[in-house]
Write a structure and sequence with these properties.
By secondary structure, this protein is of the alpha+beta class. It has two helices and five strands; from the N terminus they run αβββαββ. The longest helix is centred in the first third of the chain and has 15 residues.
Length: about 120
């Protein structure tokens, strides 16, 4: 009985070993997802609202973060770059702020691009 179990285990191990790979890699140009989005973003224990739209003429995203106060510029930058990296940038690229964000009408507005 033990010999039969040993033979079955050996065949199972051999069946799992193959020489050819069944995984294919598609390598093509990485593209930025320019679709406008509106997403709730959970950051530092709170939920904020992020809205962004791609501006073709500037080659950048118009990022708007609601729910932050006027002294939370760094948080607005962190939310914008992180969300842009996650939702729009190709793998390996991060969102980068162009200039400084501006606080107007209870929203932080910034321009950002992938890079």
């Amino acid at each position: 009985m033990k010999k039969i179990a040993l033979v079955i285990c050996c065949f199972a191990l051999l069946a799992g070993c193959t020489t050819g790979s069944k995984v294919t890699f598609n390598k093509g140009p990485a593209t930025v997802q320019t679709t406008a989005r509106s997403e709730p973003i959970f950051y530092n224990g709170k939920t904020y609202q992020l809205d962004y739209d791609y501006i073709e003429g500037k080659g950048a995203f118009d990022m708007k973060v609601s729910g932050l106060g006027p002294k939370q510029q760094q948080d607005a930058m962190n939310i914008s770059t992180s969300a842009l990296s996650y939702f729009a940038c190709p793998d390996g690229q991060r969102g980068k702020i162009i200039g400084l964000p501006i606080y107007v009408g209870k929203k932080w507005t910034a321009y950002a691009r992938c890079g």
